[in-house]
Every structure is written in C-alpha cells, then in structure tokens.
Amino acid sequence: QVQLVESGGGLVQPGGSLRLSCAASGIIFSINVIEWYRQAPGKQRELVADISAWGTANYADSVKDRFAISRDNAKNTVYLQMNSLDPEDTAVYYCHVKRTNYWGQGTQVTVSS
Q1: pLDDT at residue 3 is higher than 90
Q2: What pLDDT does residue 26 have?
Q3: Residue 100's CB: how many other CB atoms inside 10 A?
Q4: Number of H-type helices and E-type strands within the chain
Q5: What is the pLDDT of residue 29?
Q6: What are residue 82's DSSP bridge partners?
Q7: Strands laid side by side in the 91-97 sheet
Q8: How far apart, in Å, do the first and last CA atoms of the chain sit?
Q9: What is the pLDDT of residue 27?
Q10: Which among 88, 85, 65, 91 has a CA at the least distance from the CA of 18?
Q11: Which of 4, 13, 71, 91 is 20 to 30 A from residue 36's alpha carbon, by CA?
C-alpha cells in the first residue's frame, strides 16, 4: 500500500520560513518524479515544484527563488524549503507522485502576522 505523509506545516509570520517533508512508503520512490502542489481556499490546486529522480527541479514562477525542493532517496523523503513566505502562500500543501493517483493528506501552511 502506497502512503505519502506530509509534515512540517504550521503558522508563520510573513518573511518567515518552513520546511515541509513528504515521506513515502510502499513505492519504489527513487525512480519517480515527486511534485508539491498547493490549494488555497476557493482556488484550484496548483503545482508548486517538482523534482526528478536525478534531482532536477522545476518551480512555479510564483515561488521561484524562494522555495527549494530536494529529495533524499535513502529516506524516501522529499522536502520543500520555503523562505520569504507571503500571505499568498497560505494553502494546504500536498505531495504527489507524478503520473499516479498517489497523494498525501496535505499539510496546512498559514502565513499571517
């Protein structure tokens, strides 16, 4: 059974940082492209970043230069380091295995003073 478990969300002030983690089990993690999505209230889910099996990363324009995605295949974990957070980044963040129906349960990120 495939499981993706996100963690690391929370409440942070504007300009602050958070690091999200996505721990996977039940899947050959190292060969898959892993994606981070987010969904804000009343908005569609959007792709934030993805990382290939070899570590090549891509970012949405809205987070480029602020967010960094990385992976540790030995730990079956993908990370999303989020810096210079803005209230517009408030959303539930999900990890997803590309080209599958495997999603995590999501972790809430709230940026507010």
Answers
A1: yes
A2: 86
A3: 12
A4: 0, 10
A5: 79
A6: 18, 67
A7: 10-12, 107-111, 91-97, 34-39, 46-51, 57-59
A8: 40
A9: 82
A10: 85
A11: 13
